[in-house]
Structures are given as structure tokens and as C-alpha cells.
Amino acid sequence: MVLVLRDDVRLDETRQALRFFAPGLALSVIPAWDCLPYDRVSPKTEIVARRMEALVGLSQGGGTPVLVLTTVNALLQRLPPRAMLAAASSPIRVGERLDGEKLAAALGRTGYRRVGTVMEPGEFAVRGGLIDLFPPGGDEPYRIDLFGDTVEALRRFDPLSQRTTAQVKELMLMPVSEFLMDAESVQRFRAGYREAFGTVNDDDPLYQAISARQMHLGMEHWLPLFHERLDTLFDYLPGAPLILDHGAEEAVEERFAAIHDAFAARRVAPKGAGAMQAAPYKPLPPERLYLRADEWREQMAARPQGQLRPFGPPPGQ
């Protein structure tokens, strides 16, 4: 079942309430990006990591009944395909063989940032036979202790004190980015960018950064160019009934209006004193990043749904 909350505040309040009143409930939380449509900034790494944890879990299935909490904004946004998440996720187990150099390269392709000391989700560090990484979904990073090319130990540790907090036998490695930065994805981006916007000049920082396999601020807003196709949350949960929060329908209309207003604004060339400093923004059509209004109506008509409503006034009031 999918509970669609009207905004992030309601999402967090509902998550906390369910954790308290039903601690044994299998819960999956999918927040929306914490940036505006067609923004020049990227969503926070923590937000993307939470999304990836939830989507990888849904893509792997397993048959466990879950309640999915999400928001109107997240539900209307297109998602990376399930096949990509399944292919980019794999377990690391004690006693198995593991090539440290290949692991470091794989982490870079799936969105991890190489740092000196791991502190936040989406970071990894390599020091000889020790590989520290902070995957999505956990409160602490993990330390992989290699003896040659064999995993000798897996430990969770406190990033501040560096002390081990638990020994584990298995670690699920999953991406922290909604696209891969590999040769195939980069080539797909380059071809799609030229098809969408025509000839590319050397002064296009986004195109040049992706071509060099470098991260660029706000690159997530061109997510469709990294994939052959995108899925929606409806594809991840075929047939699942929906429960709409009070005010969710109004929030849907407001979101569609905000998306199209932002797209229209980005199509206008910047003017003013700072116009020469900002690179021209080349927005993709809204339907490539978000559901269309007719798609939303089709999904609403195709599955069972309910509606949360506030209590009415007491009798006599």
C-alpha cells in the first residue's frame, strides 16, 4: 500500500508516528528531491541516499508486505529504471574474494565520493587494505578489511571515534546516485543532449563535465539523458492501492503548475548584470522528468484508492 502525503513535513510526521505506534511494520520511505524543478543545484546526498535505499528494496521485491510512504512531489517524478538499480546492487560477504581497485572504481560509477575520512552517506575512502564506505540506509559507515583479495572482516564503526561498533557478515552495496557514471551512460547522455539541444559549444560546462565523467552541480535535472527510459513509482509497485492524504489532490495541481512555470521560466534567456556569468540553462520538456496530467489520471483510475479526511466538527458546533 502507498500512502501519499501532501508534503515533506507530513511525510516526516507520519514516519515518526508509525515508528512509534507500529515499530514492527515493514516501512519504506521515498522522499522527493529537496530542490525546485529545473534548479541549478543538486538534491542533498542524504535525500538521494534515502531514495536509493527504498527503491533498491522495492526493486528486489522479496514478498514482504510494506507500507510505502511518499509525497505528491516524489510520486509525480520519474525514477531510475528498476533494472539499473538491481544490476548496480550486490552483496559483499566475509570470506569472499573482492578486488579493491575494482570496488573503488565501481563506487565511483555509482555515485560515491572518494574522501580522506568517511563521515556522510555516499562517501568512501581507501587506505591500503582497508576500504571505508557509507552506504544508503545506515546510521554508520562500514569498514572492509581485505587480506590480499579476500574479505577478512566487515565492521560498522563510529566515524568520529573510528571505533568498531559491530561485526557483520554481509554488506549490501547499493548506488547513491540515480544514474551511473560509466562509459555507456556518459555516451548516452552526450548523444541525448545533442539530440535535444543541437550543436554543443565548448562553453557548455554541464556537457563538458559529464563528458569527462565529472560530477556537475544540478546534473540530476537531466536524469532522462543517462537512461534509455525511466520508470515511475507506479512501475515499482504495480497494482498497489493508494491512500491520498488530505489536501493531496490540491497539492498535485499545485505541483503541475509549479513544474510548467519553472520550465517556462528556464526557456527564457537570463537578462541583467549576472546573465553573462550564468551558463544558459537548457531544460528538458516536463514530460521527460515528470508524469503528465493524463498519466496521473490514468493511474488514479487503474488502482484501488482511499482518501484521508479531517474529522468534521462535533454535533451542535
Main attributes of the structure:
317 residues; alpha/beta; six-stranded mixed beta sheet; five-stranded parallel beta sheet; 11 helices
Describe the global form: globular
Order of helices and strands: EHEHEHHEHEEEEEEEHHHEHHHE
Show unreliable segments: none
- Give the distance, in angstroms, between the N- and C-terminal Cα atoms: 35 Å
Short description:
By secondary structure, the chain is an alpha/beta fold. The chain has helices at 8-21, 45-60, 72-75, 82-87, 100-109, 183-197, 205-211, 233-236, 248-266, 286-289, 293-302, and strands spanning 2-5, 27-30, 67-71, 90-93, 113-114, 123-127, 130-133, 142-147, 150-157, 164-168, 170-173, 242-244, 305-307. The radius of gyration is 22 Å and the shape is globular.
Report what the structure shows.
This protein is α/β, with parallel strands linked by helices and 317 residues long. The chain has 11 helices and 13 strands. The chain has helices spanning 8-21, 45-60, 72-75, 82-87, 100-109, 183-197, 205-211, 233-236, 248-266, 286-289, 293-302, and strands at 2-5, 27-30, 67-71, 90-93, 113-114, 123-127, 130-133, 142-147, 150-157, 164-168, 170-173, 242-244, 305-307. A 6-stranded mixed β-sheet has the order 5-6-7-8-9-10, covered by helices on one side. It has a 5-stranded parallel β-sheet with strand order 2-3-1-12-13. The longest helix is centred in the last third of the chain and has 19 residues, at 248-266. The mean pLDDT is 91.
